[in-house]
Amino acid sequence: MIPVLYPANATTFSTFGLGVLTDTISCEVTEERNGVFECLLKYPVSGQHYGLITKECIIKAKPNDTAADQAFRIYRITKPLNGIVTIYGQHISYDLANVPVLPFSTDNRSPQLILSQLLAGDTRFTGWTDYSDAKAFSVTQPKSVRACLGGTEGSMLSKWYGEFEWDNFTVKFHSHRGQKTGVVIEYGKNLTALEQDEDNSGVYTALLPYAVYTPEGTDTETVVTLPEVTLPIVTSEIVRAKTLIMDFSDQFDGVVAEEALRAKANSYIKANPLGATIPTVKVSFEPLWKQPEYSALLERVNLCDTVTIRHSLLGVSVSAMVIETVYDTLAERYKSISLGQSKSSMITTISEVQSSVDKVESTVGRFPKLLQTAIGKATGLITGQSGGYVVIHTSEENGQPYELLILDAPSIDEGVGMWAVWAFPITATTVPMKPPSRQMVRSSQTSSPPAHWWRTSSRPVLSSRRTARLIGIWRAAKSCFAPTPPARRSPRSATALPPSRSRKCSGWSSSHPTGTSSRTAM
């Protein structure tokens, strides 16, 4: 087909318009699943209609083997020195990116009514869909019609999923646009070129789901995670741990329960191939149905169809969806098709890009809360606050640890005996002067123990031998500083220690009767 030029205000394309662009050098139409739909045309400056080609004009071109001719509005023209201009056109449906929609909300409305309401701002367009299930839908701030259809949070595409088909001024919203045609593109039959790309960046071994909500009566957000933190993903492609962190907040309207979060996450794992690589294959092929001897074959390929690609020498055998087509309008044949997993979006304007950026910033902004929650749970496990035989208590003022308890039961309340170690910045190690009771331990969890519980050692404990020596020191110190009744002393012996106490403190030097002492030999 030879492209045809129309004025900017044209609404019907059954005539020859401003003229047929017979001097066209090349014309390609690229369409992606729920994504780009553009025309790229090259035309010489010496062409008959070169003077009529201006921005905002419309070009009619054939987009694929089966669809009707489509209208593309010119938005860009480049003029190099070689005398061949490149003309870029977007599908006429891109006009909806400049039609505003004011905020509204519905509790329960069918997608057909919503589609008609969104398109009411431009009488040229009509809508159709095969969806029937009604859902709540809202537009919280002014947006374009195209942004409400797809590409932004809360759009029809994000609510019902599906696939759009743009047929000039008709917007079709399919639950499944393509079909399984049984077409096989094979080496030695009709395959002329092949390029396979395998990317495992989307393969994971675990999913960490979380959701953020604000409880009633508070302004503080609460982060909800699972007790097991992550859910496993079955995969054999990678051996290292690789976790996908995903925010499920938009799937809840109020309080988030752990069971509901787990169910949403498991459904997501089941619906998405997170444990396997979906290869992308780009091929060129010969349309056999155009050959006289194969005219009876219905091997036609359209966007979103599922086809099979085989190449025995390269070991390629892929059955996947067509996610992109590049069609040569002049030759009326595909230049290439791509199969795989769609990564396109319907973002077309700066405002839609900003909306996507705001969503990303909102998600990223929740990471500190998520990390804080995860750190809190991990800290609880490490310090024994969630149960365990080893408990570490930290100060509420500066968060520094000051107490280590080794219990004979999983909790303090169940324990009978314990080994308690206290540490302060002013000392290298500390040895208790007498073992505190469980009540004493509980009362000292947020404050420093009394001074008379301690005996300060001049060196840290680094081995079991040193630990045993400190136990002996503790026993000597206990007897050394045991309270004794005061004895009468003569003025001559006022500064001398009692003989009995000197014998108990053998091996120690004391500079103060309250216990600020150091052992002479360790």
Short description:
This protein has 522 residues and is α+β, with helices and mostly antiparallel strands. It has helices at residues 111-119, 145-149, 156-160, 258-271, 350-365, 367-383, 438-443, 464-480, 499-504, and strands at 4-6, 19-20, 26-32, 37-44, 58-61, 70-78, 84-91, 100-101, 104-109, 126-129, 135-139, 143-144, 163-167, 170-174, 180-186, 191-197, 206-213, 222-225, 231-232, 243-247, 280-285, 306-311, 316-328, 333-339, 390-394, 401-407, 418-422, 429-432, 454-457, 508-510, 517-519.
Which terms summarize this structure?
522 residues, alpha+beta, 18% helix, 32% strand
Largest sheet: 13 strands, mixed
Q: Class by helix and strand content?
A: alpha+beta
Segments where pLDDT lies below 50 for 5+ residues?
348-352, 424-463, 493-522
The 3D shape can be described as elongated
Distance between the termini: 99 Å
Helix content: 10-25%
Q: What oligomeric arrangement do these chains adopt?
A: single chain
The number of distinct helices, counting runs of at least 4 residues, comes to 9
- State which percent range the strand residues make up: 25-35%
| C-alpha Rg (nearest Å) | 38 Å
Tell me how many strands there are: 31
User: Taking all residues together, what is the mean pLDDT?
Assistant: 76
